[in-house]
Structures are given as structure tokens and as C-alpha cells.
Design a protein that fits this description.
6-stranded parallel sheet, alpha/beta, elongated, 14 helices
Length: 356
Amino acid sequence: MGSKTTLADIAESMGLSVATVHRALTGQGRINEDTKQRILQRAAEMQYQPNVIASHLSSKRKSKIAFLCPDNFFYQNIIEGAKAAYNEYRIFGLSIDFLLADNYSPQIQSEQLTEIINQHSYDAIALSPTHTLLLDPLVEAATKQGIPVVTFNNDLPNSSRSCFVGENAYISGQLAAQLYCSILPKGSSVALMRSLVSAEGLTQRIHGFLDYIQRQSDIQVAGVYDFYDNIENAYEISKQLLLSTKIPAIFSNSMMGTIGIARAISELQSNTFVLGYDINEEIEEYIRRQVLFGSFFQFPYRQGYYTIKVLYKLLKENALTLDTNVLYLPTQLILKTNLSQINDDKIMQTMEVQRY
């Protein structure tokens, strides 16, 4: 295996944890002497060669990441991905504090970032930003202090952030519009359910959707309805639309809107065409029952995982920039036909976490 052999390879071959192998090879921490000798022998057999940079990071420098995002069921998948990456790097001195907010409050994030900057308490920041104009100056202040900032799920494209990890939201909105134009009969109308939270990703989905529709003559937007990213609001508005207008199609730019619309359609047993966003157990069931035609999936687990990967690389190289400042993850359309792939992805995520 040569120099490609990793601590995880040795640990897996012996049925041990990575932390145990690390203690044996570095002499740090308590470990049974017999176990240590067996690990050393196995490492020699596998021709393990330590990463000098990683060893230096482990012994000389501890790095601490602040991970800022809202606290809801969507972001829990992102957090799980971040924890899986953290488990790979914690033996090298990496630690993460998850600083969660109750909602998409820009004020809370602003206060969190201001405290981090003023107290010099973190070496790097992972941020799912909720407001562009309010947070751009704070990211600028952080990077001036040499603190790399990686945004995920939502971006601050005009800021000095180091990298963005997530979907291309504008293209995602255009993809949705193309499908509505292709599937609906010509001359159809679609109601647009818009979340008015200030997150860039949600805004770009709307821009992409409307820009595509305006270049077409196949379908038209019947109206724009704001539901403030609240499931109950989306449900009530959708129910009134379906009862009063018999609208043939509805589009929402967020998971909360998708759930609210689907609840109304299910209750009224309507055949309204809807493509939604994101996946949870409730949305899966609506797709399975064909209440929803489908939903766009943006791989939240991988967003969290690669955000930490990128930050670790920046910290290791003592850098604020990479060769690329965006890492776009694909947007996948989930239909009833390929819904089982989501469960396969969940199984792989579980295996990734259990490995460490």
C-alpha cells in the first residue's frame, strides 16, 4: 500500500478505532502496550508513512471551527455530514462548535459573527448566511483577520469568503422552470409560492425560475404569494388557491413551502402539478403517493461534509483562498421511480459515520 496507507486503513484492518491507532503511532495518550506493539507491527507491514504536515498540525497546532446555521430538520443532515468530516480530522487537533440559531434570523448570525471577530475565538468559520447585505461586511472583517470563511447552502457571492459549497441555485430554478414548461400543457398558469427569507439561495431559485419563464411563451405565472418560509402559511395560501382558482400548477422555492403545498393538495385530493425542494420523510411519502410529482434534492449531508473538508485544507495550508472559490454539488430530481436512491444514500451516510 506504501505511502497511500492511512490511519483509517490500519484501523479497519485491525478492527480498531482511528483514535487508538493514532495514539499508538504518535505515543500520545494512554494505550495498552500489547495493543500498541500490534499496531506498530501492522503499520510496518502496510508500509505506513505518516503525513508530516498532518503530524505537525496534530502536535503543534489546534484548530477550532465555528459552524453557523439555522436549527431545523433540513440542516440536521448538513450537520451530520460536517460531523462525519470532523471525525476524520479531530485526531489532528481539529474541533468544531455548532452555533445554531432558532430560525433564519440575520440578527442572530450578525451577533454570532461579531463576537467571533471581536474575541478572536475561532480559526475558521463555516456559515450558511441568512442575509447578504448585513453579513458581507462581517465576512470581510473576518478574512482581514486571516480567518477563512466557507459558506454553504446559501452564498455571499460578493463577499471575501474563501469558498461556497452547495447547489447552483439559479440553475436549479431554471431547471424547475424548464420542467414546468415541458410537462404542463401550453397556455397553463403556475402560482409561485415565494419564501421571503433573505437567504441568497432561495432568492436565486426565484430569479432562475422567472428568467426562464419570461423567455418562454408556454406557461405564465398567475401570481406570486409570499409565505415567509412558514409551513402553515404555505398550507393556508395553497388551500385558498386550490379552492378559489383551481390553479393547475404551483411552484415553491423552499422545503417549507413544498410541505405546506403538499398538505393542502393531499387534503383536497387535487391533481395540481408540483415540483418541490428537498427531502424528508413527509415529502418522501407525498412523492410515493404522487401528491408531489417530485422534489429537487441538493445533497445536504455532502454540503456539510465538504465544507469541513475545504476548511481543513485552508487551515492546513494557512490559506484564505483555493484554486476555486465555488464547489457546486449537483441538483438531483427525485421522482417516485428513483426514490429508493435516497434511502441508499442514507445507508451510505450511516456507514460513513460508523466507520470512525
